């Protein structure tokens, strides 16, 4: 008699990846043999609720916190779930290798200042870093006279208020934190969809 589906998870303390990487990893895990469902998220309270609602939050995930990566797999049996979790590093490496093709990794700036030197005409800075660092990067962008698309979550409300007051004083915009999508002047940010222009918008 079959024991039924098995749910297993892996917790990676202090590991951060942006949402695009996590979505790609989740999709890749879901295609593995015997896997019925998968969830790959930073273990914030809101994300834990989502995983629990999807039946993907086993008891051994209790130690995961907001700064930890939580990888959950529901499979036909325990062996298939274990095999899927064992493939995580290989799946991430495949993505890194693909990103390195065609010279895409010839140079990647390691600071906002160096990125702005490469693209001095840029008017927007998209920020996707752990929440504890996001406010500092956003403030730096404002100091450089750039608008901010703040993709990161877990930014303290006090920091959000400070950033938006500073942006208002300088005639700039701060979208977010936890801003997943926007269309500005026809330019799509984040997970925006292609939409027709309509009669409603925001201008400044």
Describe this structure in a few short sentences.
With 204 residues, the protein is an alpha/beta fold.
Characterise this structure.
This protein has 204 residues and is α/β, with parallel strands linked by helices. Helix 1 (19-30) crosses helix 4 and helix 6 (131-143) runs parallel beside helix 7 (157-169). The longest helix is centred in the last third of the chain and has 13 residues, at 131-143. Strand 5 (147-150), helix 7 (157-169) and strand 6 form a beta-alpha-beta unit. The strands form three sheets. A three-stranded antiparallel sheet has the order 1-3-2. A three-stranded parallel sheet has the order 4-5-6. It starts with 5 loop residues before the first strand and ends in a 14-residue tail after the last strand. It has helices at 19-30, 45-53, 78-86, 88-99, 112-118, 131-143, 157-169; strands at 6-12, 35-42, 69-75, 124-127, 147-150, 174-175, 181-184, 187-190. It is elongated and about 60 Å long. The protein has seven helices and eight strands, in the order E-H-E-H-E-H-H-H-E-H-E-H-E-E-E.
Approximately how much beta-strand content do the residues carry? 15-25%
Mean pLDDT: 85
* Helical content class: 25-40%
Low-confidence stretches: none
Coarse shape: elongated
Strand-helix topology:
Layout (H helix, E strand, L loop, with lengths): L5 E7 L6 H12 L4 E8 L2 H9 L15 E7 L2 H9 L1 H12 L12 H7 L5 E4 L3 H13 L3 E4 L6 H13 L4 E2 L5 E4 L2 E4 L14
Parallel strand pairs: 4-5, 5-6
Antiparallel strand pairs: 1-3, 2-3, 7-8
Helix pairs in contact: 1-4, 6-7
């Amino acid at each position: 008699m079959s024991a039924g589906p098995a749910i297993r998870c892996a917790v990676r303390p202090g590991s951060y990846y942006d949402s695009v990487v996590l979505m790609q990893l989740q999709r890749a895990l879901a295609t593995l043999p015997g896997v019925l469902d998968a969830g790959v998220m930073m273990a914030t309270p809101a994300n834990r609720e989502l995983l629990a609602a999807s039946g993907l939050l086993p008891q051994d995930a209790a130690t995961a916190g907001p700064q930890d990566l939580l990888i959950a797999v529901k499979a036909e049996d325990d062996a298939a779930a274990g095999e899927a979790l064992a493939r995580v590093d290989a799946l991430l490496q495949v993505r890194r290798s693909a990103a390195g093709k065609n010279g895409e990794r010839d140079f990647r700036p390691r600071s906002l200042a160096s990125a702005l030197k490469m693209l001095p005409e840029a008017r927007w800075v998209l920020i996707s870093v752990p929440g504890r660092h996001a406010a500092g990067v956003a403030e730096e962008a404002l100091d450089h006279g750039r608008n901010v698309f703040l993709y990161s979550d877990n930014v303290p409300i006090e920091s959000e208020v400070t950033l938006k007051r500073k942006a208002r004083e300088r005639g700039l915009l701060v979208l977010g934190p936890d801003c997943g999508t926007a269309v500005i002047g026809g330019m799509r940010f984040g997970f925006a969809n292609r939409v027709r222009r309509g009669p409603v918008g925001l201008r400044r």
